[in-house]
Amino acid sequence: MHPAFSVVFFTTATGAGYGLLSLLGVLAGQGFIPPDFWLGLTGMGLALGLISAGLLSSAGHLGRPERAWRSFSQWRSSWLSREGVASVATFIPAGLFGIGWVVLGRTSGWVAVAGLLAAIGAVATVCTTGMIYASLKPIAQWHSRFTLPGYLIFSAMTGCVLLNALLQGFAVGSNTLLAAALLLTVLGWGWKLATWRYNDRLEIPTTANTATGLAGGTVRSMEWPHTEENYLLKEMGFRIARKHSVRLRQITQVLAFALPALLLVAAFALPWPYAAVSSMLAAIAQLAGMLVERWLFFAEAKHTVTLYYGR
User: Fold this and answer.
1) pTM for this structure?
2) What stretches of 201-273 show up as alpha helix (H) in DSSP?
């Protein structure tokens, strides 16, 4: 699949933003995070900023962005439409939670309820995003048991690492949250390795023979059905060289998992403010690595329609 940057940025930014929003909604509402004005403003601003930037970026990938509103009407059958509905609905409790925390200076009572609803909405939205890809049967690399849990794990991982960096920056971090960020990073690394192993061993049953129903021999394309590239080839016929794929996988493992894990371990032993700097560097490196991981997620996926063009 063609890895358009708008979609790569969308999945990375919204995943981190919704992960951070859900953790803020639960932990602040339960009193684990102090209702400090600047902490609330920074945390909610970062979470909602990432979500908004990601959603706006995804709209830019549409052929007719001005018609994006029409997608909301197909929520009964389309995961893309359900994602749009869930993302907009989540802004309501998230906004109330932010107002209660930042303006009123409280995170208890109805503000805590709003935070919990925002967290539920964030998780639901990430689920709908994952299902957009997991439901696509023509793309075997996505239509697997690894896709949806991967979206949830990476969202929780990036959100937790961001929250740890945020709290460390305000000198209210805890070893418990630091440990959670480290464990989620290790879990995400293991899940990514398992996903790659599954995809590399994947045997796609559909071939040009089965697609045409012609048994015996090998069916191959003599000529393309048209003389120029079309939308299908541009969006679904992307090919990446194996050596480039291997190198980008290595970069992903270093930036998204190995380096953040080392920086988080260092934060355990370092005093403040060095622990804060280490935590912030871990968050920055991880987001950069997840951009590479998301690019590979699209670039390595093979759509069955490319069989029509002899690939």
Assistant:
1) 0.90
2) 208-212, 231-236, 242-252, 259-269
